[in-house]
Amino acid sequence: AQKVTQAQTEISVVEKEDVTLDCVYETRDTTYYLFWYKQPPSGELVFLIRRNSFDEQNEISGRYSWNFQKSTSSFNFTITASQVVDSAVYFCALMGRVGTDKLIFGTGTRLQVFP
Amino acid sequence: DTGVSQNPRHKITKRGQNVTFRCDPISEHNRLYWYRQTLGQGPEFLTYFQNEAQLEKSRLLSDRFSAERPKGSFSTLEIQRTEQGDSAMYLCASSEWDSAKPQHFGDGTRLSIL
Prior knowledge:
The complex is a heterodimer.
Chain A: E1 3-5, E2 10-14, E3 19-21, E4 24-26, E5 32-39, E6 46-52, E7 59-61, E8 64-69, E9 74-79, E10 88-96, E11 104-105, E12 109-114
Parallel strand pairs in A: 2-12
Antiparallel strand pairs in A: 1-4, 3-9, 5-6, 5-10, 7-8, 8-9, 10-11, 10-12
Chain B: E1 5-7, E2 10-13, E3 19-24, E4 31-37, E5 44-50, E6 53-57, E7 65-68, E8 75-79, E9 88-95, E10 104-105, E11 109-113
Parallel strand pairs in B: 2-11
Antiparallel strand pairs in B: 1-3, 3-8, 4-5, 4-9, 5-6, 7-8, 9-10, 9-11
């Protein structure tokens, strides 16, 4: 079975704080992809990053960074120096069995950044 | 790149009525997906197309649901004899042909059943 768990339902921080959103996944596939999406209050899911199962290098994009660890089946997302505009629901997703292409989403983490 | 477009944005209907939603994907994208999202949950996969061929359907897609993508361009999702449990946000996404390319989502159609 394939599953994505985002245990943090809601996180509140004050602007400029760093925050890490956790994602744990389950799959029996040896080849798979992991994704993060952002869903602001407007509702549209915005793609942030894709990572394949053979690439465990961490990635940094501006204030965003991702830590992928196969040993713990985790793909965590850190926002450094958070801003009010980062307030949104963040979803982690898994695509297994390359070729089916369906995304399996976690339940999301709502991040609220207060000024 | 004008993005994925979905119409209508909101649909309110009485239980038992039929509804149809439309999705226009990003023009060069061969793959088109439908997901359903209920409050407080992540999107759940319903079905997907490669060009005009419907390649996979979820068990969530009961026989009251039908999706089409004639000519491999826009897609429609129809729900017949709507039920209260059909109330949700219906999301459409599209991607390039290569497997595991990122899926780009539209704003969704919110369906409310009275």
